[in-house]
Specification:
Shape of chain B: globular
CATH superfamily of the largest domain in chain A: Thiamin diphosphate (ThDP)-binding fold, Pyr/PP domains
Low-confidence stretches of chain A: none
Strand content of chain B: 15-25%
Number of helices of chain A: 18
Number of helices of chain B: 9
Shape of chain A: globular
Mean pLDDT of chain B: 97
Oligomer: heterodimer
CATH architecture of the largest domain in chain A: 3-Layer(aba) Sandwich
Radius of gyration of chain A: 26 Å
Low-confidence stretches of chain B: none
Structural class of chain A: alpha/beta
CATH topology of chain B: Rossmann fold
Distance between the termini of chain A: 26 Å
Order of helices and strands of chain B: HEEHEHHEHEHEHEHEH
CATH topology of the largest domain in chain A: Rossmann fold
Distance between the termini of chain B: 57 Å
CATH architecture of chain B: 3-Layer(aba) Sandwich
Helix content of chain A: 40-55%
Radius of gyration of chain B: 20 Å
Mean pLDDT of chain A: 95
Amino acid sequence: MASRQPIDIVIALDQASIANNQADLSESGIIVYDSKILKQAFTGPEFLDVPFVELATKDGGSKVMANTVATGAVLGMLGMDPSPFEDVLKELFLKKGQAIVEQNISAARRGSDFARQHCERCAFSAAPPGRPLMLINGNRAIGVGAVMSGCRFYTAYPMTPSTGILTYLAGKSDDYGIVVEQAEDEIAAINMALGASFAGVRSMTGTAGGGFALMVEGLSLAAVTETPIVIALGQRPAPATGLPTRTEQGDLLFALHAAHGEFPRLIFAPGSPEQALYLTNKAFDLSEKYQIPAIILTDQYLADSQWTYEGLDLSRLICEDHRLRGERPASLSDDYKRYALTDTGISPFAVPGDIRQVVIADSHEHDEEGHITEDPELRRRMVDKRLFRKLRSLRSEMAPPTFYGHPDARTLFISWGSTYGVVREVIGNLQEQGAAMLHFTEIYPLPGTDTFDYVTLLTKAERTVCVEQNATSQFARLLKAEIGFSCSATVNKFDGRPFLVEELLEALHVYLD
Amino acid sequence: MSTLTDFEGKTPTWCPGCGNFSILRAFKQAMVDLGLAPHEITVVSGIGQSGKFPHYTRCNAFNGLHGRTLPVATGVKLVNHTMPVIAEAGDGDCYGEGGNHLLHAIRRNIDVSLFVHNNQIYGLTKGQASPTSLAGMKTKLTPHGVIAEPLNPLLLAIALDCSFVARGYAGDLEHLVGLMKAALRHKGFALIDILQPCVTFNLVNTYGWFKERVYHLEPDYDPEDRAEAFKRAIEFGDRIPLGIIYRNHRLPMEERIPLLAKEPLVRQAFARGIIARTILNEFY
């Protein structure tokens, strides 16, 4: 379920929380607050005055436990069993000693009891607990995807919203055998990752738009040296610092065009943590197979959104080693050339030190061995190898978009990346009125049409509406540039907040008959 | 055993008389003396006349971008820490464009040997001032002379407690071979600032200029005395010391990562099946 407009419960720890949210309160919505903290009492059935501080400081507890009281109060309002929360408190505060744990637990209980007794219009009730489901966000799903793809080296400079990947992998470093290094800047991060990749392991970096801007020369270096690398790019509203903790799909064309020179790259834009897991795996596989950079384009919304799953099938993951590893691989000739010209454009990629021949990577235009060249014919052949030959087969590796909705839809909504959940939910409500969606997660190169002719589908639809979390309909422009197709309308949101079901429903409804 | 011939590379495009030729010869000699073969080492270089270095010898090489030698070298070393990794950089490359990476490579104490071809001028781009150009030097871009004071790489490195700090001179080949061997034998980050006359663009710091000034550190000089090291590092005028100025015993980065205790990362098997059984547990 995607984010919705009406708010059921607001915990107001300051006046602004009330001012900003009161208008969006649902009919049975409640604002929980402490009249002593806010120095004001509110009347009206939507207000519940809970003495957070007073309940926190009973039994010698500290004022900061007001948060614990508030959380307890919400559990009480929902009539929920407090024990899972108590487990969280134990885990969280164990380091601070048993006394702090006890005080927090009793603070939570007091909050819960108070709310149960005083909430007169608590119409909510939590569903009875079923069997436990997985709970995972986009960043962690990328982390799991990286680990399971055999990523052995991750380096990054912390930047919202990508830091979660760095944090997850740093915590797993010893268990899963991954060297994780916090780089001094994003330039260092991408160059370290390239050094690691050259030396023989799968490597990755992650950042947001601002950090990616610094990585751009490194992206070009990856391209000319044909060194595989996976880059997670978590978008947030820019230019520059923008809205650092909000969401936007504003960097698609940046990711597509970043870096000097002409070379192939892969761009994936998962729509859910599940897709993030599988596409991270695909990014590693194809990046290494084709020796090109792969970008996983997420945004703050996907990075931090928690999704539930029954489970995720890890046996579906691809794990093929495309490197020539170990002593004297059979396919290696005596005159090993790192950039040998081949029909596929893919040259044998040996691990330095594993063989008696030397492995040379060069940022200049180079000959087959990897030495600097100025030769015009060789230049032409190297561009042909790196760019055209690889692109030829790359397109067929990309999966077509997902279709959902009315089979003979007259209006087709186009979306990509993180908006998958909310658009799908809205289309679910509109499909009987002739709506369908086409959702893209494998963005560049755009997939071929052999298995699913989405281009014909687009051209046949009466109306095509591109829904994007940006101001300039970047995906619509990509479609125009790549397949010459123009959408008939666009829906854009660029206030840094994710689409809400109700507002999107209203926005899309306009385009139905 | 390897020989000098094993390290033969392409013909250099450097100017006749360039200090880079001696640095190249010293490098090859050091590798042979250490018993290393071309496929057993990796040289990482950037951009500048020094950046072409790996093409003029024969070994595993990553000739990357201007200023970015040290991050690439760090990545290589962390993945394969039993392989000697040498970073060849220039003064513009390493003290200018990549200055930040130098600070942090020293802090990490990654076991990389950094040989800086310091000619105090930009050679590849034809004669602009570099971070080590002496104040007052006139170039096409500084008709009134360089305003900024030169960077003192040795002082900087000692201040950061760099684990090996040395100065070599392209005009003193035998001494330079010894420094390179000592740097490679040293466990931890090793900086050799190599004074390298540029016969075409730097008409101030010439072979003659250096000949009048350089001297070898005395045999009883103690490179582990940091205060004395600071004093020697400040000397860059009438007298310029050559040798190992400072050394300490900080553990190199790769020895402080438990994961790398057994064997290099590149040779560690990936326990995919075992990890797959448990990796999702924490999400339930």
